[in-house]
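Notes to self after the call with IL:
- keep both proteins in one doc
- input above output, always
- annotate only the second one for now

Protein 1:
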Amino acid sequence: MKVLSDQPKTNVLRRIGSQPVALAAGALVLVVLGASSVGLWRAYTGNSPEQERTTSLRLMQARATQASEQLVEKTRSLEASQQESIDQLQAVQDQLQVLKRLVTAQQADAKRLAEQVGGLTGAIDTLRQSFASAQSSEPADPPVARKKSIRSEPRGKGRRAGVQRKRARS
């Protein structure tokens, strides 16, 4: 029975294959019906792909313009903040140079003062040595008893003599 069912199918295909004009006409009718139904549907809804494309293109252009304006604005704000940073850095560098100069001047002053202190220390040591050698070379004199009081001497002479004696001993 399989043989009988295969024969009608092959006969139908042979009939269609033998009439290519009818097949092409049927395909053309289907294409025309499809295209006309799409055209009717667009006319009924009022939407056309050209209008949608134009609308979407305008929307994309507006978004692109807005994005570019935002980028320009952000770029300007970045430039301004960068310039502020540069100015602040320059001010800090200037302050650093001033501080370096001050530190250098203070170091020079400290060195000069250290040299002066060293010189004074040397002078004090020399004075101590000369004072010690002067004391060791002088015989111990007993203190001399004074006959006159300072008040009985004329004004100024006793005091000057006492000061001179003290200076001579030093």
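Protein 2 (the one to annotate):
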Amino acid sequence: MATTENPTSTISNRKKELPGKTSIADSVVATIAGIAAREVDGVYAMGAGASRAVGAMRDRVARSVDPTRGVKVEVGEKQAALDLDIVVLYGTAIGDAAAEIRYEVATAVERMTGLEVVEININARDVHVPGDDSDDEEDEARVH
């Protein structure tokens, strides 16, 4: 009498045992990190002065946001290190926001890629004061 294995168990065992290499591009890690950082309360934008201005113009033309703006990564075989440039909302406790960003980014990157995050440097590049947007004034002038 022949015995048969449960096909589901064969498939799940195969997932773990099948040889091959998975490589993860720097841009994948940067995208994950950028999205996770933007979701933290107190983060107004990502990027430094000139790159943020150019990126904002590009976003308007493309009608989408580049999640990698303000994110630099180094990805090795098993580890990743990140540098994030952020703009915080006025009144935000920068140290608390930075700790939350580190936690959220590390959690997202490690969960989605399996890489160990060994370092996250956060550079607060600017403070956004609500109501002090020259972009809003330009948009209003175009409506006339």
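Annotation: Residues 98 and 122 are 7 Å apart (CA to CA). The chain has a mean pLDDT of 82.
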